Amino acid sequence: MELARSRGFVTESQADGLCSFCAKIPFRELHGRTRFNLGLSSRVLASRCKFCRLVCYASTLSQQMNGKNIHWSGGGEVDVDWIQECSSFGGHGAFSLTGCWEVFIAFSSTIHEAENPPSCSLLPSLPAQLDIQRVLRWLDYCASNHDGCAVLPEHISFAHTFPGLDQLRFIDVVENCLVEKREPVKYVALSYIWGSFPNFRLTRANKPELMKPGALLWRGVWSLLPRTIQDAVSLCRKLNIRFLWVDSFCLIQNSPTDLEASIGFMDQIYEHAWFTIIAAHGHDANAGLPGIREGDRHEMEYRHHDMIEPGVFLGVSPTLNLRLTGALYQTRAWTLQEHGLSRRRLYFFKDEVIFRCRRAQCHENWPDDSTRWENKEIPSSLLSDTQTIHMGNIQCRYDDLLQGYTQRQMTSESDALHALAGIIKRFSQCYRFPMLAGLPIGTFDWFILFQGERLRRRRGFPSFSWAGWRGKIRFSYSGVETNDWLRGHTWIIWYKRDSAGALSLVWDPHENPSFPDEDMNFKGYRERRPFLCPIPSIDTSQTIATQDLVHGSSTPGSPYADPILQFWTLAVYLNIRGLHVFTAEGILVGMDGVTVGNANIDGFEDVTTFFDSDHPFEVILLSQRPRSILDRRAGHRYYAMIIEWNNGVAERRGLGVVESDAICQSFPPGPVWKEIVLG
């Protein structure tokens, strides 16, 4: 047999169930990062080898959960990578399929413990209930060793922790009632989805009764609470943490004043929590927290494990991020900041509990090894991102976030900005840039250029903001550094007019000393070149907004929650042709029938007759699009917006790109340099 091994002719039965490829993997002596080739995918699919079977299952699981098919249909080579310090499993080593970072094959016990696998390893049966002592060890270790995860100490004043907030309400799990606190306390926050279940709500009427000790146990109040809240209360009792914050129970749901005052502090509520319970299981508030009650746990949904060699146990598991991808929890708007801004999180799935902080990740079904928890920071929260990012990253950080957020669902469309308020505040504080309708004013020209497929109008918000539209948005990356683009490709001086009619600059560096210093080389609006019109007779020198408009469009009574914009730019008039009824994409045509651009039409499926018109549409130029290396076309190209006027205020109806020929090809009355009032 030794001769057979040396010549590479080891059969599966001769190698303890491993094929000749997998028998070469030193499962007991893996180090660093190593790639192992398993041969053709057809061979792996047909193999009876135990490790090949795990690899096949990992590929299938990736495809089922994420739609990715790794190698299997193309008949190519199959490689697996050993990663010595895999952050997805708390620093434990794990195998991954090359090109697939969502599913791993990891040891279900350490090699030294393999003869007698501990109860925390991946075993055929799941513990009936969560091991509370183990959760305490996770939390205590993090609190004692991870400075970056620490919450504010209790001796810090309430005013410092929650500036501007009078008090916070909590469920007191000892006194079984609602309490109001005006000093910092150690508490747990709950993040969950309400769904269609009739969730219990705090109201002005029941608040006095709920604040009496023992109220949760009176008159059937406990039975009115959904299972998720009941289980969260039970978990706090077991962990000996007295206070629990739950939105439906701690905010007066029929008091607009109370809700409005608290929404601005949602980021701090989750950030300062001792940890946040993430109810990632189920479809509503009655799904519960599996593992808290005996008998409510399910078998491992993605269980697949085997003993590869005597005493060596391996199992397949999706990453936490992939598990969240398939959860309804991840589709809701409010959960983004609740999940992203919490320092420590305890995730409840129907078959496993996972703990994650900024430096550790622990799976209930995988062994703990605290010596590996200090390797490096896990990029697991928006909180850590917003504390470490720098000026040049605001474009890629915030627009990525918006592209993910705008595909989430919300029950009330009026929550479009509220559900992101904490994150918006974080970015604003980090960059020292105020926001206007959810757009960073320091890079306002860029963020106004969002596009989407079949966007539908969301009333109550300005059309120039992503908040004014329902549907996933996207940004077209220019490949040009943001600051250079702002200096060399933009010309608009943006003004804003509030509902009282007061006019001011969107960005006035002289009036905002909190803006970035000059040594940060972030000029923004401080250097604006004039618009160079190819038609010399058109005067483009006027850029200052008119104080007293002739029409009354921007007087008090504006229908928008935020100010409207006022600015000067060039307007051209073009026809839309070839409008695709499913994608709402069309081409822009000039006076001679020449194609001069293209655009995505917004609100095409709304109740409107705007696009039925035979008359040319007004298109305003917003900024010059950088020319790529491969772009050999002559002349400039411009980002442009299709607008519709209503009672003196324009609204966005599409966004696209036009060639410089569009200026000369404009239908009457354009091209014209004009003042735009955009809501």
TrEMBL record:
Species per Swiss-Prot/TrEMBL record: Lasiosphaeria hispida
InterPro entries: HET
Protein name: Heterokaryon incompatibility protein-domain-containing protein
Heterokaryon incompatibility domain mapped to chain residues: 187-338
Pfam families: HET
